[in-house]
Structure formats: C-alpha cells, structure tokens
Design goal:
The complex is a heterodimer.
Chain A lengths: L1 H32 L4 H6 L5 H10 L6 H13 L13 H36 L4 H15 L2 H15 L17 H39 L2 H8 L4 H38 L5 H10 L3 H29 L6
Chain B lengths: L11 H13 L3 H18 L1 H4 L29 H37 L1 H16 L2 H12 L3 H11 L2 H15 L2 H8 L4 H37 L10 H9 L7 H25 L8
Helix pairs in contact in B: 2-4, 2-12, 4-5, 4-7, 4-8, 4-10, 4-12, 5-8, 6-7, 7-10, 8-10, 10-11, 10-12, 11-12
Classes of the chains: A mainly alpha, B mainly alpha.
C-alpha cells in the first residue's frame, strides 16, 4: 500500500508542479498583455516619473523579457508577489493576514455541505424513484442553478433585514470588544449566513453525485450478500454501500474546492467578510495588480494542493484506485 | 406504426411533426426546461414590445411596483422590468457565443484526442486535466481584470477557458464509437480520415455535444453574471450581474432590485440545466 501511495504521490506531484508553473507563467504573460505599460499597472494611477523609473528597476522592466520572466518566477516561488499598491505592504503578508478568515468560512461551509449533501444523497438513493428521491433531485437541480451571489443577497434580505435574526455583514459586531468565548460565539453568529450561501452550491453537487454513486453501489453483489446475511438497512446503507460511494463524495469535494474558493470571492464581497476573497475583490476594484496576481497564484496553489490531497485520500480509502 | 400518420418528408409540417414526436419522448424535466427557456428568450428578444420603457432612462428612484413599473424602479429611477428584459440580452449573447467557442474547441480536442489515441491523446488529456483543476472562474476574473471587460473580451475569455468538460465527454464517446463495426466497415471501404471523422464519428457524438452545449451556455451565463457582479462587465450595458451588484448597496431600501434580476438569472440557468439534464438521461449509457 505504501509503495502504491508513494507512486500516486509522485504522479500527483508531476501534475501539480507544471500546473503551478503554468499559473505563474500565465500571470506573467497577463501582466505583459494588459494594455499599457506594465510599469503604470504596477505603480497605480498617476505616478511620478521618478517612481515609474523606480518601479521599472525593482520589477526589472528595464531588462530583457527572458530575465524578467526568470526574476518573476524565482520571486513567486518564495512567495514574493511584490508590494500592494493600495495597502503599501508586501502582498504575501496581507494574504496570510486574511487567510484564516477565509479558511474558517470555507471549512464551515464545506462541513455543512458535506454533512447535508451526503445525508440527502443517501436518503434519495435509499428509495430510488420515490417521492423523496424526486423531491431531493429536483431541489438539488434548483439549488445548483441559483447563483451564489444572489442567494447571499436573499439570505440578507430575509434573515437580516426582514426577521432581524442574524447579522448580514462583517465577522464581528462593531464597537463590541468581546473576548474569549463571547468573541467566538459572535463570530459564529456572523458565520451562519455567508457559510450557508457558500455551502448551497457544493451541497447540491455532493447530493447529486453521492446519490448516483449510492444507487450504483446498492445494485452491486456485495450489497445483496450483506442483505442476505441479515445486516440491518442502516448497516447496509452506511457500512457497505456508502463505504464505496464515499470516494465519489470526496472526489466531488476536491474537484469543486476551487469553485468553493471562487464562491468565497463573491460571498465575502456580499457579506463584507474580511478574507482573501474580499481582498481579491478589493484588488479588482482598485486595479491593484500585484495584490490581484498574488492572491491568484496563492489561491491556485492551494487548489492544486487540495486536489492532490483528495486524490491521495481516495486512494487511501479505496484500494482499486491505487493503480 | 406512427410513421403512417407522418406526412411526406421534407415539408414543414412533416418536420414539425417529427420534431414534436421526438420532443414528446423527452422527460418532463427537459420539457419544463424548454418551456422556461422559450419564455426567457421570448421576453429578451421582444423586450421593446413588452415594455415601453428605456432601460437607461432616469426617473423617480425606489418606486415600488405598479402598472407602469411592474418591478419597481432602481436607485436612479430606471425601470427594473425593462432592465431585466434588456439585461438578458447581454447574458444570452455572452452565453451563446462563449458556449460556441467552448463547444467548438472541446469538439476539436475531444475528436483529436479520442480518435488519434496514443501520445496525442495523452498530451491533450494532461492539458485538459490542468485546465480543470485550476478554478475556471478565478482565471476568467483575473484575465478580464487585466485585459478589460468589453463584451468581446468577456465572450472570448469565458469561451476559451471552458472547453475541457466538452472535450472529455466527446473523447469518451469517440472512444466508444471508434470500436464499432461500422467504423471498421468504413475504413475497409476506403473512407478518408476526414470522411471518417465527419460522416461516421461526428453524427454519433452529436447528442452528447448538444447536452454539453446546454450546460456550457448555463455556465457561461453564470460566469458573465459573476464578472458583472464584481464590476468587470461593460458599465454602459445593463446586465443581470451588474443589476445585482447595484442592488447590493440598496438591499435595505429596495429588495426588488435584487430579487427580480436574480430570479431571471436563476430561471435561465435552471432552464438550461433542466434541458441538459433531462436530455442526457435519454442518451445511450445514461445513469438512471
């Protein structure tokens, strides 16, 4: 098993490294492709001649294209994405500062999505063709079609403005200096709506794919054997069928993780959640290109890593995938 | 047999009858999708007939709805109903043309990959995999921010990044078809490479291409809306995403600024997904 897993790890590595390389290269090409002098892009609006010359020198824009590329690449490898035009701080520092908020939001929404998604998927598959099954299938298709940013606004309209139950913006209540447990429960309260908005898309994906995988698994011989041996329905569903279907669920989560992070850009924008997604939006609206490209490379690297990890997790759970 | 009731072929009624018979066999979900989509397309195409209002004309802000403004007015008094109708033109245009690019590229890569096999296949599939791992919308957002958000740019960038799912579906179908006997027969009868691809392989993957296309249109519309929502679209043209961006600041005053464009967007995407989903359940080898 260990050898097979190591081989898989090496294989994933061989995909991940060129991919990250491609992302960094794409970013470099984009900076060059953007209309206008990249020095202006990097220096922001209306810079002085002096500052422009300085920017040209720091970014090596006065050197050959090839040297520029090498310099860009070697800096990016060490997490040096330049200095944010707006915040006047190293981009990597800002991102690391914001990352915990995004991590919290992402983990919360993925947890909700996977628990409910699996529950709905298994429930639908346990009675294929029944009203419950049809209902869950239709609902998941509807949920899948609702844009993340619109559901975010609807949640604010309903639960913040109409019923006044939950806060619809920020991560903590302003002007309340909570500490310890009170701070955490305040954060948890602020987390509910954005996490729900972000979870919806993934939830429907997980429900759909888990259902298909479960229907498939429930038709297999080992399920018939388990039933013949007198295993309870719950045991057949969870210990036998879901044990096989779980790799599909994990694969979906891994594949859609990127989409979830993009969802974070939209959700954090709507709910003023102080994470990397909101930072991304700030970078877009302020045309802060070092911040934009830095957050892009950072996010892409995380997505690639999570993707590799899910493949390895699946292989660890399912011996058939260890080829 | 029903064929006796069908009028002579190649006349308009005959073709309509055959289309109707084909449609009738589709599952309810696909039919609901088709009807919803027709409604949306009708509303968007015939916008000038459905509303006398100009989507850009200013008026009294934050009016709730009455007969003159069925969906109220926005923060600078523009008619929301007119903006929803005209805004759909951007969404549908971008959706259609981006999907054309994506489906065209995907078809080409899928055919090349599935039919050639070997090293070409291996190389193309590695590239496809790479494209699928990095979140597409994220790349789209970054590229459009850098190169500018004109409608042509948006169409091109969305389209050129969206081909991998189509390529994968087409590839897997080409591989299935490639081993059929009629292909061997065609090869034996001396069919050229291109004849083989266009006359024998392509017609067999066409249904899969259509399903993939409807999913591609949905995903392109969603991408365009997200771009506009982030303020990256063309500011001079109303679009659903842009309307949702504007409504964000006025949720407290005017819920209708958010609800109606969002509803239009969600219905359009739902229609396309229903259509694609329902149709794919009728394709050979589909899961139940």
């Amino acid at each position: 098993m260990a050898v097979a897993l190591l081989r898989l790890l090496a294989k994933r590595f061989l995909i991940a490294v060129p991919l990250i390389f491609a992302v960094v290269t794409l970013t470099f090409v984009l900076i060059r492709l953007a209309p206008g002098d990249p020095a202006y892009i990097l220096a922001g609006d209306a810079p002085s001649e002096e500052f422009l010359a300085q920017v040209r020198h720091t970014y090596g824009l006065d050197q050959s294209m090839w040297n520029q590329y090498i310099a860009f690449l070697s800096k990016a490898v060490f997490g040096d994405f330049g200095t944010s035009i707006f915040y006047k701080k190293p981009v990597f520092e800002i991102i690391l500062d914001r990352f915990p908020a995004t991590l919290l939001l992402t983990c919360a929404s993925m947890t909700v999505a996977s628990v409910l998604g699996v529950a709905f998927g298994v429930l639908a598959a346990s009675r294929p063709g029944s009203r419950t099954d049809t209902g869950i299938t239709v609902l998941s298709l509807v949920g899948y079609s609702i844009p993340t940013f619109w559901i975010g606004q609807l949640l604010i309209l309903a639960f913040t403005l109409q019923f006044k139950w939950l806060p619809g913006g920020g991560m903590v209540s302003p002007r309340r200096n909570y500490e310890g447990l009170a701070w955490w429960s305040d954060v948890a309260l602020h987390l509910i709506l954005p996490a729900a908005a972000m979870a919806l898309f993934l939830l429907t994906m997980i429900a759909r794919f888990t259902r298909t995988a479960m229907v498939d698994a429930l038709g297999r011989d080992f399920v018939t054997v388990a039933k013949a041996k007198g295993a309870s329905e719950r045991r057949v569903l969870w210990a036998h069928a879901f044990r096989v279907a779980v790799t599909t669920t994990i694969t979906v989560m891994g594949l859609e993780f990127g989409a979830v992070l993009v969802g974070a850009v939209l959700v954090e924008t709507i709910f003023s959640w102080p994470g990397v997604g909101r930072l991304f939006y700030d970078a877009i609206s302020k045309r802060d290109f070092p911040l934009l490209t830095g957050s892009f490379i950072f996010t892409a690297v995380i997505v690639v890593m999570v993707n590799a990890l899910t493949d390895i997790a699946c292989a660890a759970l399912d011996p058939r995938l260890r080829k | 047999m029903a064929s006796e009731t069908i009028p002579a072929p190649f006349t308009v009624p005959a073709m309509l009858t055959r289309m109707w018979l084909a449609l009738r066999r589709f599952p309810t979900s696909a039919k609901v999708g088709a009807v919803l989509l027709l409604l949306v397309v009708f509303g968007v195409v015939f916008a000038p007939l459905l509303t006398p209002d100009d989507p850009m004309a200013l008026g009294t802000p934050f009016q709730t709805f009455d007969w003159t403004h069925p969906m109220g007015t926005d923060d600078i008094g523009r008619d929301v109903f007119a903006r929803v109708l005209y805004g759909g033109r951007i969404s549908l245009t971008v959706g259609l043309f981006s999907a054309l690019i994506a489906v065209g590229l995907g078809l080409f890569v899928g055919l090349a990959s599935g039919f050639s096999g070997g090293l070409v296949d291996e190389a193309l599939m590695r590239v496809t995999e790479m494209f699928q791992i990095v979140p597409r919308l994220l790349v789209t957002i970054v590229v459009v921010t850098m190169v500018g958000g004109s409608i042509a740019n948006v169409i091109f960038v969305i389209g050129i990044l969206a081909w991998p799912p189509t390529a994968r579906i087409i590839r897997s179908q080409v591989i299935v078809v490639r081993h059929e006997e009629f292909i061997s027969a065609a090869i034996l009868s001396g069919a050229s490479y291109w004849r083989l691809v266009f006359r024998h392989i392509l017609p067999n993957v066409l249904p899969f291409l259509l399903v993939s296309a409807s999913m591609q249109v949905a995903s392109a519309i969603l991408s365009e809306a997200a771009l506009s929502f982030l303020g990256l679209g063309d500011p001079s043209l109303p679009s659903w995403g842009q309307m949702l961006q504007q409504s964000q600041g006025f949720l407290r005053q005017a819920w209708w600024m958010s609800v109606f464009p969002g509803l239009a967007l969600a219905i359009t995407i739902l229609a396309l997904n229903l259509l694609g989903d329902g149709t794919s359940s009728k394709l050979p080898g589909a899961h139940k």
